[in-house]
Amino acid sequence: MSSESKKLLTAAQYGIRLGNNDLSHLSNKASVANYINVADEIKRVLKEGRILDWGCGYGHMTYLLRNRNIESVPYEIEKRSNFDKIPIFSELNIIYGNENFKLPYENNSFDAVLSCGTIEHVADINSSMIEIKRVLKKGGILFIYMLPNKQSYTEWIAEKRGLSVHPVKFNKNEISEFLQGFGYKIIKIKRNNILPKSLIGLPSIIKNIYGSLYFLIIPIDRFLAKIPLINYFCGVFEVIAIKN
């Protein structure tokens, strides 16, 4: 396990001890390894430049991207409790806005925008997309990760258990139509998370045992996500699109 994995896990576990129950997505090795893979892909595609980490939450993606020499600007509208006490996150200088969708940046300010588990939660998705397009340079890249799949078996289970936190879900055709409607050229729509990573709602001991097998879970998940019919029920979509 890498040093940045250990640091993220330590920070998340410290936050959970303080009472921050919204850190379960960073509480086991499999989940953290998944985010590291996302950061690695962004680095391969973007290479360098200025990226807006839109709806950054605690800022874990900004932490990973800065480690890869990408200028990441973390933006959020909600400050988490105990935030200033949690290692790593409290040092990221997150910028907080006070409007649901309006961004405090000039036109064409960013080479890329990242939505990692964000777009499905916003109050006004169309207004938010207009703002993202405004601040993104022509030819800039929109990265979307953790976008929930309508046909996901894990989403179905979460809804049955009353644990679903995703008010908006998509299928592949809806993603294409949605982004093309805003003038984006889609480079990739990939399915991921046949095997869940964070196990929200399960006891910590199960999460830790499961997460410790990340070196098996991640490659098996990649393999399963490429198999037709099986991947139809994946947990999320990963999208890369370019502003025309």
Keywords, separated by commas or semicolons:
single chain; 244 residues; alpha/beta; Rossmann fold; seven-stranded mixed beta sheet; 8 helices; 7 strands; 36% helix
Secondary structure blueprint with pairings:
Elements: H1 3-17, H2 29-46, E1 50-54, H3 60-67, E2 71-76, E3 95-96, E4 110-116, H4 125-135, E5 136-148, H5 153-160, H6 172-181, E6 184-192, H7 204-211, H8 214-224, E7 236-243
Parallel strand pairs: 1-2, 1-4, 2-3, 4-5
Antiparallel strand pairs: 5-7, 6-7
Would you mind describing this structure in some detail?
- The protein has eight helices and seven strands.
- By secondary structure, it is an alpha/beta fold.
- It has a single domain (3-98, 107-243), classed as Vaccinia Virus protein VP39 (Rossmann fold, 3-Layer(aba) Sandwich).
- A seven-stranded mixed beta sheet has the order 3-2-1-4-5-7-6, with helices on both faces.
- Strand 4, helix 4 (125-135) and strand 5 form a beta-alpha-beta unit.
- The longest helix has 18 residues, at 29-46.
- The chain is globular and about 45 Å long.
- The protein starts with a helix and ends with a strand.
